[in-house]
Design a protein that fits this description.
Belongs to the peptidase S66 family. The chain is an alpha/beta fold. It has helices at 16-28, 37-40, 50-58, 88-97, 109-119, 129-133, 140-151, 177-182, 206-218, 247-257, and strands at 3-7, 32-34, 67-72, 101-104, 123-125, 154-160, 166-176, 196-202, 227-234, 262-263, 277-279, 282-287, 291-297. It starts with a strand and ends in a 6-residue tail after the last strand.
Length: 303
């Protein structure tokens, strides 16, 4: 069983009931949960002042040896405020000596990509306390895959989509699309060539998703990748004005314009069911025109 430290560098946890349920579930499974005060802490719309949330990040440099997992409470907004103030030198030195599993998604993507860029630290894009472990009905696949991904030095994912066949390998990276795009031109966006870029988002209409992906294209980032994998994009309602322009139409257009394979349909992101992906690990992707298989290795695992 693991010692799990909670971290809240972004928005205030509105759904306190869900967070409490998540803590109870993890405790019932035999895990110990520390730093629970991060759940109730609040300043304005944030999970504490900038100084308090920055302290959550810096405390990663002095974790107890027993701490296996660092788990984000929720996303929201607030991580971007902290990027300039993070002591990457100190963090990198400590985390390279002993790297816990650091997991979250959404707004937390900004910190995950900054740690990858500045420190070379692999973190996991996956479930969070409130939205996933604290859901009214816990998704069994999400639960099982999380523990598999952080315990096995090599694991495999498969999903269905109708993209043209391809076979590539490279560094797995990405996370929340809006957060990734917001880092373009900054020192916190990884300069990865030959990578497998995996993105997801929520409450973004297909045209906004298209616009962000085109920004990655225009910035020259996509053409340097081996493949683009699209996770879940939910939370929007199309109207009469769209006249048939939906997510599938958007994917078809982008597949024609981009020079890299575009493979949609991975259960990854703001959904009850989500895979867990180590950002910065090595991926081998094989797609036969109907089934995609992604083999993941090179990440650290819990003891």
């Amino acid at each position: 069983m693991s010692l799990i430290r909670l971290i809240a560098p972004s928005g205030y946890c509105v759904n306190q009931t869900a967070a409490a349920r998540g803590i109870q579930r993890l405790q019932d499974a035999g895990h110990q949960i520390e730093h629970q005060q991060a759940v109730t802490r609040r300043f304005q719309r944030f999970a504490g002042t900038d100084e308090e949330r920055l302290a959550d990040i810096h405390q990663l440099a002095s974790l107890s040896p027993e701490c296996d997992i660092v788990l984000a409470v929720r996303g929201g907004y607030g991580a971007t405020r902290l990027l300039e103030q993070i002591d990457y030198s100190r963090l990198g030195h400590a985390l390279r000596a002993r790297t816990p599993v650091i997991c979250g998604h959404s707004d937390f993507t900004a910190i995950q990509l900054a740690l990858l860029t500045q420190c070379g630290i692999i973190t996991f894009s996956g479930p969070m306390l409130a939205g996933n472990f604290g859901a009214e009905t816990l998704d069994d696949y999400t639960w099982q895959h999380f523990w598999k991904a952080i315990a096995q030095p090599r694991f495999t994912l498969s999903w269905q989509n109708a993209a043209p066949a391809c076979s590539v390998s490279g560094t797995i990276w990405g996370g929340n699309l809006a957060m990734l795009v917001s880092l373009i031109g900054s020192p916190w966006l990884p300069a990865i060539d030959g990578g497998i870029l995996v993105v997801e988002d929520i409450n973004e209409h297909p045209f906004r998703v298209e616009r962000m992906l085109l920004q990655l294209h225009h910035a020259g980032i996509l053409r340097r990748q081996k493949a683009l994998i699209l996770g879940s994009f939910n939370g929007t309602t199309l109207g009469d004005y769209d006249a048939g322009y939906d997510f599938n139409e958007m994917c078809s257009l982008l597949a024609e314009r981009f020079s890299v394979p575009v493979l949609p349909g991975l259960p990854f992101g703001h959904e009850p069911q989500t895979v867990t992906l180590p950002l910065g690990a090595f991926g081998e992707l094989k797609h036969d025109g109907g089934t995609s298989v992604l083999s993941v290795s090179g990440h650290h695992v819990i003891r």
